[in-house]
Amino acid sequence: MTFHDRINFVSCNLRLYFFTILFSILSTISYSQNEAAIWYFGDHAGIDFDSGNPVPLLDGQIGTSEGCSSISDQNGDLLFYTDGVHVWNKNHTYMENGTELMGFWSASQSSLVVPNPLSNGLFYIFTVDGMENSLINGF
Predict the structure, then answer these.
(1) pLDDT digits over 35-56, tens only?
(2) Could you give the angle at the alpha carbon of 38 between the alpha carbons of 36 and 39, nearest 5°?
(3) DSSP 8-state symbol, 35
(4) For the chain, how long is the longest CA-to-CA vector?
(5) pTM of the prediction?
(6) Cα gap 126→75, rounded to integer Å
(7) Which of 54, 124, 118 is CA-nearest to residue 87?
(8) pLDDT category, 10, cuts 50, 70, 90?
(9) Strand locations in 3-137, DSSP E?
(10) I need a labelling partner for 134 at 20 to 30 A (CA). Which of 60, 74, 104, 121 fits?
(11) List of residues 6+ apart from 25 with CB closer than 8 A
(12) Which one, of 126, 122, 48, lies nearest residue 82 by Cα?
C-alpha cells in the first residue's frame, strides 16, 4: 500500500466516522420521546408526562404489583397498556385478543412493547411467565 493509498484510506474512514456521528446526533435530536409519555402501573394508577410535569392518573384498569408496559403515539396520546396477561386500549377496555396473554402479572418485567420499525401502528408484545406460575408458559 502506497503512502497515497494510506491517506485515501484514512480520509475515507474519517468521513465514515464523521457521518456516523452526525447521523447519531441528528437521529437522537429528532427522536420523539412522546411514546413514553403515559405510564400505567400498580393499583389502577398512572402518570401522564405529556405536559412536561407529571400528572397523576387514576383511571387505569391495571392491577399489578410488578411488571407492566404502556405505549403512546408520537403525540403522547395513549395507545394501550398491559400487565403481560391483559391489554387495555386508550379507553381502558380490553383490546381484541387482549386477554389471556402468556405473561404473568407478578413477573418483574411481565411484558415488553416493541414498535415495528417498518410499520406505524404495529407493535409486538413480548411476555414473560413468573416463577410463581412454575414457568408453565415459558420464560
Answers:
(1) 889 999 989 999 999 888 999 9
(2) 95
(3) G
(4) 70
(5) 0.71
(6) 24
(7) 124
(8) very low
(9) 38-41, 45-48, 55-57, 69-72, 78-82, 87-89, 111-115, 123-127
(10) 60
(11) none
(12) 126
Report whether 129 contacts 138 (CB < 8 A).
Answer: yes
Looking at residue 139, its amino acid is F
Write out the three cell numbers for 127. Answer: 411476555
- Angle, CA 85 vertex, CA 62 and CA 123 arms, to 5°: 95
Helix (H) or strand (E) holding 79: strand 78-82
84-122 pLDDT tens trace:
889 999 999 999 999 988 887 777 788 889 999 888 889
Percentage helix, strand, coil for the chain under 3-state DSSP, each rounded to 5: 25, 25, 50
C-alpha cell at 25: 446526533
**CB 87 within 8 Å of CB 125:** yes
Q: For 126, which DSSP code? A: E
Question: How far apart, in whole angstroms, are the C-alpha atoms of residue 123 and residue 125?
Answer: 7
